[in-house]
Structures are given as structure tokens and as C-alpha cells.
Specification:
This protein has about 230 residues and is an all-alpha fold. It contains twelve helices and no strands. It starts with a helix and ends with a helix. Pfam families: Sel1.
Length: about 230
């Protein structure tokens, strides 16, 4: 059945409009990618001012990775005057898009009190958010925050949970920390065999303190165990 000529013309105009919109969005995406790639290239070459300018263009257009990188450069004063509050703002924009490195950076800023008042509760929330996406360093930091109990209630059970998540993803410091918890009997009864297992995993990755604990425990057995473990509890 032949279409009405008027309907065909309307359909053609509509499709043309859609094509223009798609082309515009596609071009914008290419520009974003180009700015981000340029920023990365400039950064690798140590051309920090040019890198910052390129990243900033992409960041203002909504590129989450660029927003995180602008935050990093503001935080460290690379290519731009150091401004930790400005850095926090960019990290927040990126983290709001679900960018895991920015979520980790938000945790670090609150943990260290950079650009914002130190707040371990908020730091922990960001570390857990990034950790839920599989970021091993954030998982380790969540465990460490629970173990230290600074600004929050100390919880060795939660510390073990997050350290285990991080260790399973290859974080050597989490392996060592699990060894210390097992050795000291924090969160559950002391288990020297399990402590040795975690220390051995860490030592296999060149962790010197883990290797030292292995030597001490093998030489003195359970009597050589340290309790409490100051590195975690202070």
C-alpha cells in the first residue's frame, strides 16, 4: 500500500532530525575522547599545564575519568595551583557517575582531611562504595578503618571481611593484615596456622614484614605471637 506523500515527507524530515542529533552526540563523544587522550599524552610527557587544560575540557563536558584526573591534578598542584577543595568537587562529580577511582579518592580525602574536615564515617562509606565495585585498595582501606576504629566503632569482624575481599584480589597489605588479625586473635580466636598462611601469601609477594613474622612464629611457635598488634590497633 503506497504511503501518503505528506506522511512520507514528514517521516523524512523526522529521520533527518534524528540523524543530526545522533551526529551531534557522536561528534561530542569523539571530542571528549580526543580531549581525554590528549590529556593522557601530555601528562605522560610531563606537560602538566597542557594535560590539565585538555582534561578540564573533557571534565566540563561530563567525562568521569577526566573529572577524576582534574581532581588529582588539583589535589597535587600539577599543571594548576594546588586546591584541595576544588579537587574534592571534581572527585565528587566523577564519583557521582560511579567512577570507582573517584569514589576511592573521595574516601582518601575524608580519611586525610584534605579539602574537607576529616570524617572517618564518610571516608568509610566511600571506601565501601568503591570496594563494592571490586576496588582492592578501597577494600583494604575499609578494613583498615574498621581495625583502627578512629572516628568509628572498631569492628574486627568487618575488618576481616574487607581485608579478605582485598586479599582475594591480590592486595598484599590485606594479606599481611589478615595474618596479624589471626596471630593476635582479633575478631575470632587466635589461629597461628591461618596467620602463617596469610603471611606466606604476603611474603611470596615480597612483603618483608610478613617474612619476618613467619621467621618469628616458626622459631617460637604460639609463644612468639604478638598481642595486641600495634600496627592495626593504633
Amino acid at each position: 500500500m503506497e504511503q501518503n506523500p505528506k506522511v512520507r515527507r514528514q517521516a523524512a524530515r523526522w529521520l533527518a532530525g534524528v540523524f543530526v542529533v545522533l551526529l551531534a552526540f557522536g561528534s561530542a563523544g569523539l571530542v571528549l575522547a580526543d580531549d581525554f587522550s590528549d590529556g593522557a599524552a601530555y601528562f605522560r610527557n610531563g606537560q602538566y599545564e597542557l594535560a590539565f587544560a585538555a582534561y578540564l575540557r573533557a571534565a566540563k563536558a561530563g567525562h568521569a575519568g577526566a573529572q577524576n584526573n582534574v581532581g588529582n591534578m588539583c589535589a597535587e598542584g600539577l599543571g594548576v595551583a594546588k586546591n584541595e577543595k576544588e579537587a574534592l568537587g571534581w572527585f565528587k562529580k566523577s564519583a557521582g557517575q560511579g567512577f570507582v577511582l573517584a569514589q576511592r579518592n573521595m574516601g582518601k580525602m575524608y580519611d586525610e582531611g584534605r579539602g574537607v574536615k576529616k570524617d572517618e564515617t564518610k571516608a568509610l562509606a566511600w571506601f565501601k562504595k568503591a570496594g563494592a565495585q571490586g576496588d582492592a585498595l578501597s577494600q583494604f582501606m575499609a578494613g583498615l578503618t574498621y581495625a583502627r576504629g578512629e572516628g568509628i566503632k572498631r569492628d574486627y569482624t568487618q575488618a576481616r571481611f574487607w581485608f579478605t575481599q582485598a586479599a582475594d584480589r591480590g592486595n598484599v597489605n590485606a594479606m599481611y593484615s589478615l595474618g596479624m588479625l589471626c596471630e593476635a586473635g582479633l575478631g575470632k580466636p587466635q589461629d597461628i596456622d591461618e596467620a602463617l598462611m596469610w603471611y606466606e601469601k604476603a611474603a611470596a609477594r615480597k612483603h618483608k614484614q610478613a617474612a619476618a613474622r613467619i621467621d618469628a612464629l616458626r622459631a617460637g611457635g604460639a609463644a612468639a605471637a604478638v598481642k595486641p598488634i600495634k600496627e592495626l590497633t593504633q
